[in-house]
Specification:
Elements: H1 2-15, E1 23-24, E2 27-28, E3 35-36, E4 57-59, E5 62-66, E6 69-73, E7 75-78, E8 86-88, E9 91-95, E10 98-102, E11 105-107, E12 130-133, E13 136-140, E14 154-155, E15 169-170, H2 182-188, H3 197-207, H4 214-217, E16 225-226, H5 229-234, H6 239-242, H7 248-262, H8 267-290, H9 297-319, H10 328-345, H11 351-374, H12 381-401
Parallel strand pairs: 7-16, 9-15, 13-14
Antiparallel strand pairs: 1-2, 3-10, 4-7, 5-6, 8-11, 9-10, 12-13
Length: about 400
């Protein structure tokens, strides 16, 4: 067993920097095999954190292997590469006298993941935690931890779990004795998409955190699950904070998006709210730079006071007599706000980036408001085209900021 473990360490010295290098392009290919001579620990039992917002999918935690042995990669809410894709979890399988690691992947259907009961919709076969309906993901509240204030695409479908085992591997002595179904076999041969950049950084960060190593925690990792990749990065040794999904600034952006979407908030009101959020985000960004990435207690109190004032104004804007019929211009604005909120919640967008994005959205919303005022409440074709052109440009910028790897410091 010792020689097998030493061989595994030598193999991982070359492969560890890119733990998912078995993927190439959009099709999965087995290029690097990670094998270990002894079984992974049992799966830790944990509570699923609240979903950070619409569009996030749950990816269960799993034991990975590095030069220092097995380490736990926390379960986490992530955004898929594109709509319509589902996550097939990683698993370990006993094959040829060794435990072989099978990485997770994205695809149109859920494939075989060893019959392992990861919970929260992954009971061993398929996934029952939610489903795609058109371009929107709907969550099954019977198994997923959803806050219906921030996530409204929900349904309830009770699920019976037969396999209650916490065994983390398939096959061999003591393993889960499951074999792929014909449906899972078909899903395994579909085009697969590699884990996202956020997922890759999530696993790498877990590997570098000693408290996640089985040799240190004896199978009880400090962080078993996190609300987002950003929450785990910011609070790697605090389970309570790592499981909290709601950042104040993201919640405010969500409320602006909701108001625009249902016509309760006009473009003029949205412009004011977005400018206020931009100013607060910029203040947070500047304070972090001045303090090495963190906020002092006094700065946090000041930001919270300003957000309280902004919250009251958003409420008034969403409940006054000023309304507008739902329209494509405001829907586009709402979608941009939603993406900003999602980026902040997931840790993909820094406060400085959010400040810039909000300022740009405020400018566009003010333009729409002024154009409507000049035209008796409507936009002409040229004005609509101009606003759409500007939103296209901003959409690309939001995408870049949500995928550039920039992160705020601790103390978010």
């Amino acid at each position: 067993m010792g020689s097998t473990k030493s061989f595994s360490k030598l193999l991982l010295a070359a492969a560890f920097a890119l733990p998912f290098t078995c993927f190439s392009g959009v099709q999965a290919h087995a290029a690097v095999v990670i094998s270990v001579g002894f079984a992974p620990p049992v799966l830790p039992v944990y509570t699923q954190p609240l979903c950070p917002g619409p569009g996030y999918l749950w990816t269960p935690g799993y034991w990975a292997y590095g030069p220092d042995g097995y380490y736990w990669v926390p379960g986490v809410w992530v955004q898929p590469p594109s709509a319509g894709l589902l996550w097939t979890p990683a698993y370990w399988g006993w094959e040829g006298g060794l435990y072989i690691f099978h990485p997770g992947y994205w695809g149109p259907h859920v494939g075989f993941y060893g019959g392992i009961n990861y919970g929260f919709g992954y009971a061993g076969i398929g996934f029952v935690g939610g489903e795609w309906r058109g371009g929107a993901f709907f969550y099954n509240r019977a198994v997923a931890n959803i806050d219906v204030v921030h996530v409204t695409n929900v349904y309830v479908r009770n699920v019976m779990v037969v396999n209650h085992s916490t065994v983390a591997f398939n096959g061999g002595h003591g393993g889960i004795q499951a074999r792929p179904t014909s449906f899972e076999m078909a899903a395994m041969h579909e085009h697969h998409f590699e884990p996202t950049t956020n997922q890759l950084s999530h696993q790498t960060f877990a590997a570098q955190n000693r408290s996640q190593w089985a040799s240190f925690n004896h199978g009880r990792p400090t962080i078993s699950a996190a609300a987002s990749v950003g929450a785990f990065h910011d609070h790697p040794n605090n389970p309570g904070l790592a499981s909290r999904p709601n950042q104040r600034e993201a919640n405010q952006d969500q409320r602006i998006a909701n108001g625009l979407r249902d016509g309760q908030m006009t473009s003029g009101e949205a412009a004011r709210a977005e400018r206020t959020q931009s100013n607060i985000d910029q203040q947070v960004h500047n304070d972090r730079i001045a303090n090495g990435g963190a906020l002092t207690n006094r700065e946090r109190q000041q930001v919270n006071h300003e957000q309280n004032e902004a919250s009251r104004q958003i409420y008034r804007d969403n409940h006054n007599a000023n309304t507008i019929a739902p329209n494509d211009v405001n829907q586009r604005e709402a979608n941009q706000e939603q993406r900003i909120a999602n980026g902040e919640r997931g840790g993909q967008m820094t406060s400085g980036e959010a400040a810039r994005a909000q300022q740009n959205q405020a400018t566009i919303a003010r333009q729409a408001h002024n154009d409507r005022a000049d035209n008796g409440g409507a936009l002409n074709q040229q004005q609509r085209q101009q606003i759409n052109h500007e939103q296209n440009r901003e959409s690309k910028q939001i995408h870049q900021e949500n995928h550039n790897g920039n992160r705020d410091g601790k103390g978010r």
